[in-house]
Amino acid sequence: MLLLRPALGQVAEPPVKDIRELQAAAIAENSDGSQVALEGLVTWADPGAGKFFYLQDATGGIRVNYTGEQGPAWGDRLHVQGIARPGSFAPLMEATSYRPIGKARMPVAPYGSGGGLLNGSFNGEWVWTDGWIRTAEFIDKETLMVVLDSGASRISLRVSHASKLDPQKLIASKAIAYGVASPVRSREATGQLVEVQILVPRAEELHTDQREKISPWEKPYTPLRSVFRYQPGQTRGDRVHIRGEVLMTSGDIAWLHDGDAGLAIRGNTTGLKRGDRIDAVGFRDLQDFLPVFSDVIVKPDTGPAIKLSPKHLAPSELIDGLHHADHVAVSGHLLDRIETPFDSGKQHLVLALQSPRGVFTAELDAPYTKSMADAWETDSLLEVTGICVVQTDASGEPANFKILVPDAAGIRVVQAAPFFTVGRMLVLLCITLAILLAFAIAAYLLARRNTRLRSEVSERQAIAAERGRLARDLHDTLEQGLTGLQLHIRGITLSLPDEQQETRTRLETMRALVKQCRTEVRQSIWDLRAEALENFDLGDAIHRMAQSVFLGSGTRVEFHQRREGGKIPGMIGDNLLRIGQEAMTNALKHAQATLIEIELITTPVSASLSVSDDGLGLSNMPQDSRGHFGLVGMEERADRIGATLQVESREGGGTRVRVEVPLPPEETASPTS
């Protein structure tokens, strides 16, 4: 017993408060650490449970923790001084001192129903409750733990000093217990009480009425289909004797079947596995409006073998709820597959299946191989074999069902998925859209390119037309005028007498200057016409050039052209024109020819140009081509277009320049234009 008295000169003890007042202050002020005093009756104390006791006055009850070696006794009246603090669920007191002030009888206990106890209405108070004892076992030599089915709730009783009680005789008894309502577990985030326990101070406060006159093990087996059917005089405390074979286990529930019907059992199912035949007794219970056999005690079954065979049913026959916990086989088209790994490394597989009555799921917690999973393809028709679990709505009516599949062998492909599944159609649609998008982008880029090319072609055609017009105008006006001027100066020079040598010299200078201007004008005309080949026939361009070159020279020009198909590209035509131009210029300057023969032959595979003269021949050809195109220029142009150039002496005198070039195949579709 902890006794502390104030010394002389110390502050006097604080005034005594009511427990309810202290609890309200502890919550409101969050305990400022000041000393408070209480007086009340010890309603529970058990040193074996820990260093705390419960104190109650006329307003309520509170837990008091102490640190001394010896605690108070049940029924003591105490004066307690200490510090209040909130606690995990309700405020409690940390005692710094306490002293006995007498003895008292227990207060009148109100009735605490299961719901009232769980909502915290009687926290820390002396109450009584009743119900059916479901389980009872000793946790040490003096302490008995009892689970009480109180209405719709399960309340645990901790009975102290209960060594003389027999747990087996207590099971299925109607019980009334007196004790203190103590919180066991609460959610800190919400302050909600989750689990409550009645602390019974001694065995005499537990009053039981044993109803089982015959051990349930001696009663005949009840078929699982009849366990929850009405029996005259039945109570919630009646235990039933059953047998069956375990189909599967899931958490704390095992699914049992006797060959005709199934049932979910809950309780001492640790160690059970699929295929075990068991003999069991337990209580009828409800969970989510569905039957469950609770608080079972299990023994191995040595009776006759149980023949198990799944019932092949349509989904519509399972929705009505008549086959809950039954062993069934049902088919549906696979809509989706969801795989979730467990913490233990296992796989949890959920299959969503389509039926004429809607969608249901099949759940598999057993191992399976990749080849099995690959066979379970979307849109395939699957048959799943397992436990039918009915799902209810808020009013308890059957709303849907799911199938718990014990192992992967319970999933069978009845009909493989068609090739054009929804998934594949979506993939094909995405690919098609991607291709269409690529074509659209390509078409857009091609259209932009074609627009740009058309613009460039139109611009080049306009430029070529303008250059052609300028070339014709220069040829028909300026060049003809310069030629006439040159001839007049020549005539005037010849008509002058020999004594006017100075005048003759000036006229020759003028004639040379006009000749130079005429040559430059002719070169400009050639340049303008070469750019216009896209609008002029190559043969016509060569013929016009020859007439311009040899105009007024007294040299006769003969032009021959033979077309056998093929189209000459612009670059090839331009270089052929330049080579022919240089050949004619050389003949005019160096050959002193009287006849120039020009021949242009176009075939589907090649084009050839030949320029022949009857002049002095190669011996009179200059070796230095600076200032002229010359042979070097012709050879460079021939190499540029992949042509073969031949410059040779002609029989009977003169020179022949012949160039032959192959035409690209794509350019041979139409004749030259």
TrEMBL record:
Residues 571-665 form the Histidine kinase/HSP90-like ATPase domain. One of its GO terms (molecular function) is kinase activity. This is Sensor histidine kinase. Residues 647-673 are annotated as: Disordered. It comes from Luteolibacter soli. The chain crosses the membrane at residues 425-447. SMART domains: HATPase_c. It holds the Pfam family HATPase_c. Keywords: Kinase, Membrane, Transferase, Transmembrane, Transmembrane helix, Two-component regulatory system. It comes from the Bacteria. Residues 648-659 have a biased composition (Basic and acidic residues). PANTHER family: NITRATE/NITRITE SENSOR PROTEIN NARX-RELATED (PTHR24421), SENSORY TRANSDUCTION HISTIDINE KINASE (PTHR24421:SF62).
